[in-house]
Specification:
Elements (H helix, E strand, L loop, with lengths): L5 E5 L4 H17 L4 E6 L4 H4 L7 E4 L5 H14 L4 E4 L4 H9 L4 E4 L20 H13 L27 E6 L13 H11 L5 E5 L6 H9 L8 E3 L6 H9 L3 E4 L3 H8 L4 E4 L5 H4 L7 E4 L24 H4 L3 H14 L2
Parallel strand pairs: 1-2, 1-4, 2-3, 4-5, 6-7, 6-9, 7-8, 9-10, 10-11
Helix pairs in contact: 1-5, 1-9, 3-4, 6-12
């Protein structure tokens, strides 16, 4: 029996979460090709959703519209004939929105919490966020218990860079992690040292990639390498999400920490070197389609992963998980990935 005709999926952000959610939409569309999938998200992400072919219609919820906007949105969704909801962004307002839709089939996302922190957590089996997001879809729509879930975004047309010579090596560097959870960032001095060494190779060109929050950091990094300005491009805060995705497809390698553009790079098939400290890699690390290396702190450092928003330690122990990932290890991983790239 056809379970739902028009399914509303609620996920307001962030970039990485929307990418991790996207394989579930593909699984729904594969199982029920005639089902309409409507996605409710924030004003920052309709262009990203446009890269998800399974979505039939995008709805935008701007929180600045307040309660009146919420009630108006509910009225519009009822008129559209929504008869099923998967709420991947549970809150009081999204619960209320679902109730305002009347009698609809629904399922709510419940994040699998970290049961222990630090070294003890590393050995505990845990669902990846991609599989976690799949659970409410599976329950509501009777999807298979096991599914091949891999984030892949669609680019209608990748623009080739006419200036890129066949012998050039484009390395995308994502030096920031956004305005929140700055403890996930590798140190700027380490990025500077990394770039200086990479640029010793005569064919390397570095592209600094990120959003508006990274503009100041990228400018400082670029300023520290004035001698190599001709082979260093600062793209931070310049492109929209599809534009950034197209730029990432041009890279022979992308290096960065736990942030949205790294998940974007993974979803468009870029070779990767990821730098992870406080993050539980087995839970939220990018699901890469191509050659990749994940760099983490030494096994002897007992506090990682902690998944805390801020490092609780001071002095030399502050951000030890990021400080103890040396530049040399990133360089070695980078050359390994570059040698294996397709």
């Amino acid at each position: 029996q056809f379970p739902v005709k028009r399914l509303l999926v609620i996920r307001l952000g962030a970039l990485g979460d929307l990418i991790h959610m996207s394989p579930s939409l593909e699984a729904v569309k594969a199982a029920y090709p005639q089902m309409e999938i409507h996605l409710l998200t924030s004003p920052a992400y309709p262009a990203l959703v446009g890269m998800m072919p399974a979505v039939d219609r995008v709805w935008i919820w701007d929180k600045r519209q307040g309660w009146a906007g919420l009630f108006q949105l509910a009225s519009q969704l009822r008129s559209a004939g929504i008869d099923g909801v998967v709420n991947l962004h549970p809150s009081f307002k999204t619960w209320l929105l679902t109730q305002l839709l009347g009698s609809v089939k629904q399922a709510v996302y419940h994040k699998e919490k970290l049961r222990q922190k630090g070294q003890a957590q590393r050995a505990i089996p845990r669902r990846h966020a991609v599989a976690d997001f799949y659970e409410p879809f599976r329950r509501l729509l009777g999807l298979p218990l096991e599914a091949a879930l891999m984030p892949r975004l669609s680019l209608a047309q990748v623009q080739e860079d006419p200036l890129k010579r066949p012998d050039e090596i484009y390395i995308g560097l994502i030096p920031g992690v956004g305005a929140k959870r700055s403890n996930r960032a590798w140190e700027p001095d380490a990025y500077t040292e990394l770039m200086q060494t990479l640029l010793e190779h005569p064919n390397v060109r570095i592209l600094l990639i990120g959003g508006p929050d990274e503009k100041a950091l990228a400018a400082r990094l670029a300023d520290s390498l004035k001698a190599n300005q001709d082979r260093l491009e600062n793209h931070c805060g310049v492109h929209d999400i599809p534009g950034t995705a197209r730029l990432l497809t041009q890279c022979d390698l992308v290096i960065g920490g736990d942030t949205g553009p790294m998940h974007l790079a993974a979803a468009v098939g870029s070779p990767l070197v990821g730098i992870y400290g406080p993050t539980a890699l087995n839970r939220t690390g990018p699901m890469a389609q191509t050659t990749h290396q994940w760099m983490t702190p030494p096994e002897s450092l007992a506090c990682w992963p902690c998944e805390l928003a801020e490092c609780p330690y001071t002095g030399e122990s502050h951000l030890a998980c990021m400080k103890q990932i040396p530049v040399q290890s990133i360089l070695e991983a980078s050359w390994v990935v570059l040698e294996k790239r397709v």
